[in-house]
Amino acid sequence: MTFSTPGTKQVTLRSCNSGGCTSITKTVTVLDPMPRITGMSSVPPLLGTGQMISLSAQTAGRPSLIHRWAITGTGSTSNNLTLTGNPVVWSTSTPGIGTYEIRLEVQNGDGSVFSNPLPVSVARQSFSDVPPTYWAWQSIETLYAAGLTGGCATGPLRYCPTGSVSRAEMAAFLVKASHGTVYVPPVPTGIFADVPVDFWAAPAIEQIFLDGITSGCALAPLRYCPDSFMSRAEMAVFLLRAKHGALFIPPPATGTVFADVPADAFAAAWIEQLASEGLTGGCATDPVRYCPDSTVSRDQMAVFLVRTFNLTAP
Predict the structure, then answer these.
(1) Is residue 107 pLDDT above 80, yes or no?
(2) Residues 174, 112 share a domain
(3) 112-158: pLDDT as tens digits
(4) Domain co-membership, 117 together with 143
(5) Distance between CA atoms of 68 and 223, rounded to whole angstroms?
(6) What pTM value is reported for the model?
(7) Are residues 65 and 159 in the same domain?
(8) DSSP string across 213-242
(9) What is the pLDDT of residues 13-41, one digit of tens each?
(10) 137 φ, ψ (degrees, to nearest 5)
């Protein structure tokens, strides 16, 4: 007797002899000839180095054993991994950056069966709060690789992408971007009344003053306002002076590029020049706007710096 499908079956057995026939009905369980994988945990297609991913699965059919998880690096046998257990934790730091396929092998006495492959890519993730799926991930990684930022905190290393950029931080960014990361500014002398010589960003702030990028935020006495947040209008001036030099003067504004930047607005010419050079597309559409009075976030600043100084992604 042969059964084509597994499950619980009613079987009638008939025995006959010279005295007649007798029927006996039995319930039998028909097992799968091989174990079946009925479900696997979903894995995001893009992960960052350092992420911990739990792999788990469900099986059916014969009493079976989840034998191993096979993680194969495409085109690289050196990155092949075997993990045992269910669930099992996979650290993406172990294989590193690359493209992988994850398969599950289920095994019993009759053989083994592999699941369909799950494709996964692992990308660089230097900051715990900036995964590869974050919109400004590549620019932030580029900034870090270029030595323009060390992040906002450690343990773990973080970038604080949604935090606002202060005028002190802006000075530090611009000095590294325009002079190079090994450049050491002169010892500060106390040019600004609100920037003492022992202030953490004093060398950078005085350097961008000497470079003609800033003339401060107020007079009598001369001040820089280091703890104030940088507006998008101010940023346009800072970026273009750092890129083109203190003597650069953009063409007069037309007032037709951004709906919220009329020709007579503060920094209008600089904002329109930023757009003309392809360094900004604005903050919103329908109509196209720039949001000149909004503060610049750290993720936005990463994008602006990469574009302005043509930084190359790692």
Answers:
(1) no
(2) no
(3) 778 888 999 999 999 999 999 999 999 999 999 999 999 999 999 99
(4) no
(5) 65
(6) 0.83
(7) no
(8) S---SBTTTTB--TTSBPBHHHHHHHHHHH
(9) 777 777 778 777 877 665 555 567 778 88
(10) -55, -50
